[in-house]
Amino acid sequence: MKVTNNSTALQGVRSKGRAVYIHRGQTRDIDLGGVELEKAKRLSFLQIEGASKANQDGDPKTALEVLEMAKDPNVQFMSFKSAAAKLLGEKTPAKKDEIIAALEELATQP
Questions:
Q1: Pairing state of beta strands 46-49 and 11-15?
Q2: Fewer CB near the terminus (10 Å): N or C of the chain?
Q3: What is the distance between the alpha carbons of residues 89 and 98, in angstroms, rounded to a whole number?
Q4: Both 45 and 70 in a single domain?
């Protein structure tokens, strides 16, 4: 994806577990996906081209994407639970480990 830094300072994003820095006004090709993409999209000064329109508009994520959120220590439980509820509906369990089990089941269904 092409990521442009529109801020007045050097900015960094995570890609494949490492920091990638973008100078002010610079555009770089960066491999973003899953939680790393979600974090980058929260930064209003970054322009991201090539991200799926569905995820940019806040449409439900896939079960695998929500499971990745569960692994990320920077994602709050309620954000994870909200994303899971979009997939699981009224059957969303209350506890994190039960939600993970339900998402894993959903992800393995054809």
A1: unpaired
A2: C
A3: 14
A4: no
Q: Is there a contact between 70 and 54 (Cβ–Cβ < 8 Å)?
A: no
The per-residue pLDDT for range 7-20, each reduced to its tens digit, is 999 999 998 889 99
Using CB atoms within 10 Å of the CB of residue 75, give its burial: 0 to 12 exposed, 13 to 18 middle, 19+ buried. Answer: middle
3-class secondary-structure state, position 7: coil
Same domain, 70 and 103: yes
Nearest CA to 71 out of 96, 91, 93 is that of 96
Per-residue model confidence as pLDDT tens digits over 59-83: 557 888 889 888 888 888 998 998 8
**Domain limits at 68?**
63-108
> At which residue do the structure tokens 């954000």 appear?
79
